[in-house]
Amino acid sequence: MKMNQITFGNPEAIYLLIPLLFLAVIFVLAFKKRDRLLKTFLHTETFSQSLQMRQRGVIISILLLIGFISLLIAIMRPQYGFDVQEVTTRGSDIFILVDVSQSMQAQDVKPSRILRAKRELLDFLKYLSGDRVGLIAFSGKSYVLCPLTNDYDTLALFINDLDTQIVSQQGTDIKGALLTALSNFDQNTKTDSRAIMLLTDGEVTSGDAKDVINQSNDSAASFFIMGLGTTEGAPIPKSSEGGFIADESGNLVISKLNESSLKELATKTNGIYVRSVFSDDDIKTLYYNGVKQKTIATTQKSGMQRVPVEKYYWPLAVAILLLLVDGMYK
Questions:
Q1: Residue 315 carries which DSSP code?
Q2: Rg of the chain over all Cα atoms, to the nearest angstrom
Q3: What is the dihedral angle through the alpha carbons of 142, 190, 222, 294, rounded to the nearest 10 degrees?
Q4: Dihedral through CA 161, CA 165, CA 166, CA 167, nearest 10?
Q5: Is 259 helix (H, G, I), strand (E, B) or coil?
Q6: How far apart are CA 179 and CA 111, in angstroms?
Q7: Number of helices and strands (H, E) in the chain?
């Protein structure tokens, strides 16, 4: 049976120990210097009395130092044992739709559109707070890789597995991806707390974009879209044979970011559009200026979880007691 272990809710506070150690060194050096001066300039009897005062000062300084260390431990929030509690969060339901069609292998953004999409989503996880997030991969067909969840670590595993071979049927059917998302939202949640995040180059090969807009408006789901690629475009690498995809005439197929249709889709669904950039500004804009501002957070149950029991009040009590004692001696 695994025994309970002491953990800390704020372990980064350990760095506050550095100034405390510096303070301890100053105390030691100050007392040594004081001893040398007293021994040099005072008579033996006077020095003996001063030595008693010094010992008292040492004790007070030690108590003060222990008090500060106890306060530091309290700030680190020691935890021991667990309570099982029903955990609730406030947030939105977000389905992420990722285009995994062949055109996402184009390298007009580095290292490629699909790899950039994965990096964007892994960065996105850092900013999430209380939201339930699901993941859908789509090309000619759509598949739910991860249902709505608060477990962002598990979601990250599915994001890492994204590639252009994960869906066998090629094409880009945004309408089908949308319908898959809408059918997998929790029907008990309010529609204005739902959001759909779409990462794609916008090259639709099946499905009518107008149907997508009408469907999203009917369901009150907003689209928060990130365009991947450039309007100049790039050839599409073949997945295993090497070289690039060509048309029937032997000309290279150039895949371009269809930015105008993506902007229209975002605007007409009360969402926003951004183009992928190297910094986190794009994903932060989608989340903070998009999802957080245009959807209404709701209270959601995330199940029963083991919650660490806080024990910070014990070292805090010791710190307060020792600091009070120090004050009484002064």
A1: H
A2: 31
A3: -140
A4: 160
A5: helix
A6: 30
A7: 10, 11
- Helix, strand, coil abundance in the chain, percent, nearest 5: 45, 25, 30
Q: Are 135 and 146 in contact (CB under 8 A)?
A: yes
Query: What architecture is domain 87-304?
Result: 3-Layer(aba) Sandwich (3.40)
Residue with tokens 């939201």: 131
Mean pLDDT by 10 residues, the chain (330 residues): 74 85 78 67 55 66 84 91 77 94 93 95 92 94 93 94 88 87 83 90 72 61 91 86 82 91 88 92 93 84 72 90 73
In the chain, domain spans: 6-77+312-329, 87-304
Terminal alpha carbon distance of the chain: 50
Residue among 4, 7, 21 at smallest CA distance from 311: 7
C-beta separation of 307 from 87 below 8 A: yes
Q: Which two tokens stand for residue 165?
A: 């071979």
Biggest alpha carbon distance in the chain?
109
Cβ distance 258 to 185 under 8 Å?
no
What backbone phi and psi angles, to 5 degrees, belong to 254? Answer: -100, 120
How far, in Å, CA of 228 to CA of 160, rounded?
18
Contact indicator for 136, 180 with CB cutoff of 8 Å: yes
Kindly write down the DSSP assignment for every residue of 191-226, as one continuous string: GGGEEEEEEE-----SS-HHHHHHHHHHTTPEEEEE
User: Can you say whether the dihedral through the CA atoms of 25, 31, 34, 39 is positive or negative?
Assistant: negative
Tokens 């990096």 correspond to what residue?
119
User: Cβ distance 94 to 197 under 8 Å?
Assistant: yes
Helix or strand or coil: residue 241? coil
